[in-house]
Fold these 2 entries.
Entry 1:
Amino acid sequence: MFKNYLLVALRTLLANKLFSAINILGLAIGLACVIMIALFVSHETGYDRQWANAGRIHRVMRTFTPGSGTPDLHLATNAPQVGPLLKADYPELEQVVRLNNNRLILSRPDSNEAYYESNIYFADPEVYQVFDIPLLSGSWEGALDGPFQLVLSESLARKYFGSVDIVGQSITVNGLVEARITAVMEEVTHSHIAPNALASISTLNAMFGEAYMNNWASNNYHTYIVTPPGYDIDGFTTGELPAFLRRHLDENINDFTYFSTLPVTDIHLKSNRDNELAANGSQTVVYTFGAIALLILLIACFNFMNLSTARSMVRAREVGMRKILGGNRGQLVVQFLGESVLLAALAVVAAVGLVELLLPWFNSLLDLNLSLNVADKPVELAWLLALIVVVGLLAGSYPAFYLAGFPIAQVLKGELTGGGKGEAIRKTLVVAQFAISIVLIIASGIVLAQLRHAISLDKGLDSERVLIYTGNNTAGLGDSYEAMKQELLRHPEIVSVTAANLMPSDQNTNADGVRFESEAPEVIGMAYLNVDYDFFETFDIDFIAGRSFDRARGTDLFVEPDADNPNTTAAYILNESAARQLGWTPRQALGRWFEVTRGGEDRRVRGDVVGVVEDVYFSSIREAVKPLYYRLMPHDNPRSPFPNLQRMAVKVSGDNLQETVDFINRTWQRFNPALPVQQSFLEQNYAALYDAERRQGNIFTVFSIIAVFIAGMGLFGLAAYMTERRTREIGIRKVLGSTVLGIVRLLSLDFCRLVVAANLIAWPAAWYFMRSWLAGFAYRVEISPVIFMMAAALALIVAVATVGSLAAVTANRNPVLALRHE
């Protein structure tokens, strides 16, 4: 019986080559999309599940709620002493560890070659008990117990030493100290952490002292806890953490700060806080991609249903003869479902080939390294087999029951009942296909429009021809920054040079408590930026009122308070949002006093507001512009081991660009021989902020084209069948004087109506979903009706071109041949 079913199925496929090819190709393309998206979804949802205690690891995070119109600050990090205090207060916690992320300069002691290395984590000794990273050499026991101990990743070990057997050797850090290598670890992948090296956290104590490690204002430590099995983490978060804060922080700080927790397995998709260790994924993107995969699969399955039911007349007599010869409905259903599963199997084989061909492109689009290893991964093979069965049953169920239900008598007479119902279902499927395609086209257009809006938005500054140079967190821009600046300004192509602790396009999480002139002065939180002279001139930031910082006015400089001089002075410049928050117009702000608290209420820096500048879009337009004050700072900071200014901006004329860049690099190396050159263009930094949106736009566009193509293939097959059935009618119409154009219009009109109906369904759905997507941006485009009209026009063009071309071919045939048809 099975052999008979298989032979019939193969003969049917070969006897109807066009429809078989359309079905297999349409399903294969759809399944290839599904497989690639499934690989992406599996990758994104699998982060941080490799740890032995993954289900019990939680990150403890800090949120500031300064109020008074200042946006809340949601940090992924915490203060340095939070970890030890949690361990002391809650002994039931199995483990508490901290990670402090840094970018350091590493070099071999016997080499002059030094390199910046990112993701160097200072970590507690017990870090391996939370994140059980395998070692290639050495042992975790004692690896991070003492200061100046380092565990290197395999890639850094091979980069600097050419081997992983380097335990006991030393490496120089920031050109200042030597750290002893105690172990070499495997590369960490598929995790929100990606350490190139782990350094002992006691190194920070040794270098900067206990005071640095007990600073509640230093929120740079990722803090993780491991809870015992069955622990009530929700109760801990809502009950214990507020009590913890009350014990260890004074009331003023408690008023605007709170802690929260997040499972480590949720960080990649559900966390989008400031100070993340890496750019996380998006749960919305995962859901969106999953929906796209399902929609494309449905389009491909709809094609199969449509073509199978449309060709029901061809197979009706076969059904009738099988029933006369004793075949029952169940056997016929099994036969037709078997054909569908066979076709799905062929489509899956073709889809796997397409995936292997397209996966490198897909990886480059997503900046990932996905792979399909069916031979090495039985789970993936099982999923593919399940996909064959599911798709075969999904696509073939309706045609199978539809064909098997034909009555014998009417079948043999050529009179099929339910024809109107079958026609209605076919039209419904065509409408569904094009509705899905139109939604994807509209989504693609809106994503690209938002991306163009983000890139072309007036940022409030001039980012063209500005180069950014980065120092490190201990040396900053070097002791000779002022001399280097003057040397650079002697070059005729260099327009301006300035420095700051952060540059435009950076994420600014810095904030201070400030007070301002009012009837009842109160302390509020406000973001700040440490800047050098010429900052506003370098970026062409316009002043709405007042002036810039002036070298001729010594009182402009921010003077750090200390025990001997607790009240010092400075001049301040506000952005427009800050002035508005304080209740001032730009003109009213001038001359008003503004005060910053430094290290407690007893130390204050008070001065006048001397200028108000336009708001600047420092980060991406997902975030609203923050109220911000600027303060003029020297390079060195007497209150901290870290310099005030760590990044330098150089504006050039654009003439002889390469020669100018080479001159800047040589000058940097001459004044800072221990600091490697790390340079970028500001325009590129801003563009990098929207890489995720750019990838989404590209993917939406590609999958929209695929959806339209699959829908067009189905329409082509359906139109081919319909024109074949109406060949005789077309011949009669030509004999009676109809033109080719008239016949094309006649045959295309029904399909155009279906596309119009698809638009009526797609438009509200697309508007709803894309409005929700745009809500993630503080500054967004309006949804333009032009995008909807263009999507409708594209769908109509595809329908008319597909159906019209077939109708034109049929209409141009000799009417005599048409009348002999059938």
Entry 2:
Amino acid sequence: MSRKILFLFLLGAGYAMAQTATITGEVKDASGAVVPNARVTVTNTQTGTRTSVATNSTGTYVLPFLQPGTYNLSAELTGFRTAVRPGIKLNVDQTARVDIVLEPGTVSETMAVTAEAPLLQTESPSVGQQIENKTIVDLPLNGRDYTQLVTLSPGATPNHYSRASNGFSLNGGVTMQTTLLLDGTDNTNYEIGTDTGNINALNPSVDAMQEFKVETANYSAEYGRSANGIVSATIKSGTNGLHGDAFEFLRNDAMDANDWFANRAGLQRPPLHRSQFGGTAGGPIVKNHAFFFVSYQGTRQTSSNTVTVSVPTASMLAGDYGNIRIKDPLTGQPFPNNIIPTARFDPVGAKLAALYPAPNLPGTVNNYSANQAVTDNADELDSRFDQQFSEHDAAFFRYSRGTGENDQTSLCPPPGNCGTGALGSWPHIIPLRAWSMAAGETHIFTSALVNDVHIGYTHNSSNQLDTATQNLYSQFGILGVPPSPAIKGLPAITVTAYSALGDRNWAPNLKQVQIAQLNDTLSWNHGNHNFRFGGEMLYTYNYALSANFPRGVFAFNGQFTGNGSADLLLGDTSTANLGTFQIAHLRSHYYGLFVNDSWKVTSRLTVNLGLRYDLQTPWWDRDNFQANFVDNPLSPAYGTLVPATGGSIKNRSFVNLDTNNFAPRVGLAYQLTTKTVIRSGFGIFYGFPGYTGNNDTGTANPPNLINISLISPTTAPVSLVPISQGFPPGLLNPNNLANPNIFGISPVFPMPEIDQWNFAVQRQITASTSATISYVGSSSSHLAGLNNVNQPPPGPGALNPRRPFTQWGQIEYETPYAHATYHSLQTQFEKRFSQGLV
């Protein structure tokens, strides 16, 4: 860890959100008069920890920042019997209202109140769904991934096209505008791609989960930077009892039929063995004061993909194509008897073609099939420690670590490897590493003033590597590729209608994200108002190194002979690509301030008023390895690329800092009857940059990235780049660029803005059942979109230039032009069992 990151962590520089619950209410006497200065105490039934406050002059009390769990509540004052309300179940981010009536008597006398725990949501207009541990553990989950249950919430739908296999959309929002929290710290995966495919930075075992809550609309001003919604999860805490469990889930191929393609090729049934195992343990360190909880889950999966491709036959590799017509590119006439003389073979092309395996199926098409073994292993460790120093001071610390590796073997013997040419078809090694720390402290200064602070740090990395152990370029005679210790194996060789050869492009592809976080919230109970003030910071560091063309990519499409493999034998490439490494050290900072007032206007009406201010910087590169296309006709640099310079964020990112992000929130909850609540709310929510590919930040522009494509015209008799000659020296000089594709971003780029509104009616049907019907609407603006501003206009070429900017090729220009609207009618039923709500 760098000194700077360590320093930020120790200071708590970053961003977090509390994942706690609140009990509030009024204390009155038998006549209905408010009772000030009554002592209200809650006791966690599993840990014995206690928290106490006194009612204010209006008889109101607020017990904020409580850990989710089951509590007993008592209220006492001299001259009254002590009132006890047992079994109050608190969920994540819940505000439960519990009113108490004190009867005359002595404090030593106890009056038990046996009313049901609060079922109706009477204090907040937010829209969401609570998912408890019983639901998480009992429902079948493929892969034991708790985020699959998010789609149980009204308004939530799966979104597997979001670069995350477990992605989802909340009320029509963009998946990457969702914030996932784990014990109050950001657990969102900001490097989603084909290697991770997970929306979480860390994915805890479901046995370690206490519960989680999905908030999809009109949440409090305490939450920002979350335009799509919030998923708040908590890890279990230890209790006064020693508890633990162990588990294993096994899946195999014992009763599976053979894959049709494997059976056709005479291959054995592809193996499948998946085992998930682990356990949890938790208990007291010091009874009623200190507790521990640990969880481990391991995943071991071995499987295989049956892949069928076309490979040249032995006679083809000898130059004899039989009935397949091939022409001599020098004459334009067919080779006699469709046989290429061996004297015409390109030495490098023939050596590469010899890497093809012999067909194991008849014919010349789809004549090679094999099982490609895949292993996918992972380990997840979560630990949490809680300490109750006194009734006024409590703290926790959590450490989580996840490791994994996804490996895929080659389809045919290396270094040929074979494959369809798609990125996922090449052999690869993908190690995944993630860890995070979170800590929090809650301190009661007075009965009216309570503070809660969280700090956190998350480190997440993934690397896409090829399986080669040494550079084979010189052994095969491939010239012109700049040497690098990062480049191993062979370049990617694509042959139209045949299997690809060599090693994957985009390897190595290294990615790393570091997030340092801080959140502080102060709760002040004053009269009928509960004010919350707070501030947040989040610093994001995103490192990426990618190598698409630095290893060279050669394509043979058959344009010279009519057959791709024949072109390979002659060494005639249709396209040859070479480039430099792409390196990015991206930075982004976020700051937020808020004030929120929960105002009990009457015993039935609660109004929530909030105001939030968000400040999100655009991405900039640590070393200013960015350049931007200027699309402003009034600028003297119009139509050119300008490099990033030091100094202001505008100079480094090309985007003006958006400082006008005030987000008001207003909502009400009105208890129409004892069994009916009406809720409504409106709010403005600002998003964040979300996942950003390197190509969308300016680091892909020259001179920071040079990609050269040498394309042989279809009218040329021979290739411009015979593979035996390789790439010419000095090819990667920026002066050799001709009409490169570039990227630009608008200097005016405000944060995504979502206006949300809702109206809901909740009705208690029985003592343990409620139903809610809601209307939810939203309007989104300032969403990012790409346009090619160098698109040739329609019309005859003589009257219209081929492109507006002839020195460039495609110009992807990003602007915040996109917008969206959403309307839905939602129904929700809740049933309370002895273990909680589902």
